[in-house]
User: Fold this.
Amino acid sequence: MAEVTELEAQDLAALLCSRVCHDLISPIGAITNGLEVLEEDDSEEMKAVAFDLIKKSADQASAKLQFARLAFGAAGSAGAEIDIADAEKVAVGLMAWEKAELSWEEPRALMAKNRVKLLLNVLLLAIGAVPRGGRIKVTVSEPVDAPTFRYECSGPNARIPRALDRLVPGDIDGEVMDAHAIQPYYAGLLARLSRMRVSGAFEGENVVITARPVA
Assistant:
């Protein structure tokens, strides 16, 4: 296994900010386009189209922000615990705008902050496993102080994300670290902080990604 490369704190922060901006630029741009239509076209038909575009784009931006706040943000003080139901809420909000459907099974309990953040970051990897849509079933096993996260990804051309082999384990030698690459790298960082290991494998035609505790 290649040696883990740790990014400088300022580089990690800058790249995570770039990731959030990358995710928000599309819905924010759509809101701007809708406002421009309202300024330039007085027809009732175009006003209705513009208002619909603005509302949907604002809802999408809000869902992405709420997800990013929990998945990437501080989310409480060091050592804090987070209700897993809060993770489910932001995950459902995000998945409303994705091609795949979400099924979520987890105990109603508090869990260590970094593990909740890992739970959400691995969900983003699972989305990448079904690029043409399908279904993602998330299961969190008990006990919550030593959980296993399981993501069963089914859909056309399901695939194991390349990031699982290099970026998640922290092998970034020769990689261009940008807004796309930083998220799986960050997922791996959270896994190491939580003493968990992320892996993926095929089960039939489905891809199953797991995050398990390590000794």
Observations:
- The chain has one domain: 9-213.
- The beta strands are 81-83, 101-105, 110-112, 135-140, 149-154, 196-203, 206-213.
- The longest strand covers residues 196-203.
- The two ends are 17 Å apart (CA to CA).
